[in-house]
Design goal:
Layout lengths: L17 H14 L13 H10 L3 E4 L6 E4 L21 E4 L7 E8 L5 E8 L9 E4 L7 H17 L2 E4 L4
Parallel strand pairs: 4-6
Antiparallel strand pairs: 1-2, 3-7, 4-5
């Protein structure tokens, strides 16, 4: 209302890991990751930031004690150190995904390189020739075939290799 631009969820710079965000921007530029999306409904600041981070294979984090991002790269910092000293008693739990996972992922996006037409592609799990179960995924901000393929492959890898959920409460 006063004509002052608000960014970073209205947080002061002291609560934002500006250097970490710059590193993520350089990572995305180097890899050619973009986020092209028009939000047509209300979303929280956190959900908008998570969608943008996901386009670069990242996730919002507070690992340095400030709003930041971590992404899929070998030299990223540990988000948290969890051990017996900081887990609250009786809260540690591992849930294994024992149900069948999708054998194929169908990724959908609107392709800016093809006159903004709806496009889809299917990614099968390794060794699957005739999939029985297809999961559908429409990642926000993806507008190219390369982006759709990357998001789909990353999602399939999570589908295959991240078969458990570990939860706990910490002090």
């Amino acid at each position: 209302t006063s004509g002052r631009l608000m960014a970073g969820m209205g947080l002061p710079d002291s609560q934002i890991d500006v250097e970490g965000l710059k590193g993520f921007i350089l990572h995305c530029a180097e890899k050619g990751y973009t986020f092209d999306y028009v939000f047509t409904s209300l979303v929280s600041c956190h959900d908008a930031l998570e969608a943008m981070a996901a386009a670069g294979l990242g996730s919002i984090s507070y690992h340095p004690g400030r709003l930041s991002v971590v992404w899929a790269r070998d030299d990223q910092p540990v988000e948290a150190v969890v051990n017996m000293a900081n887990i609250k008693r009786g809260t540690f739990r591992v849930d294994y995904a024992t149900r069948e996972s999708a054998e194929e992922i169908e990724v959908a996006w609107i392709d800016r390189d093809d006159d903004w037409r709806d496009r889809t592609l299917r990614i099968k799990a390794p060794a699957v020739t005739m999939p029985r179960d297809t999961a559908r995924y429409a990642p926000l901000g993806v507008t190219t075939q390369a982006g759709g393929l990357l998001a789909g492959r990353f999602s399939m890898a999570q589908n295959i290799y991240q078969r458990k959920s570990v939860t706990w409460e910490m002090d």
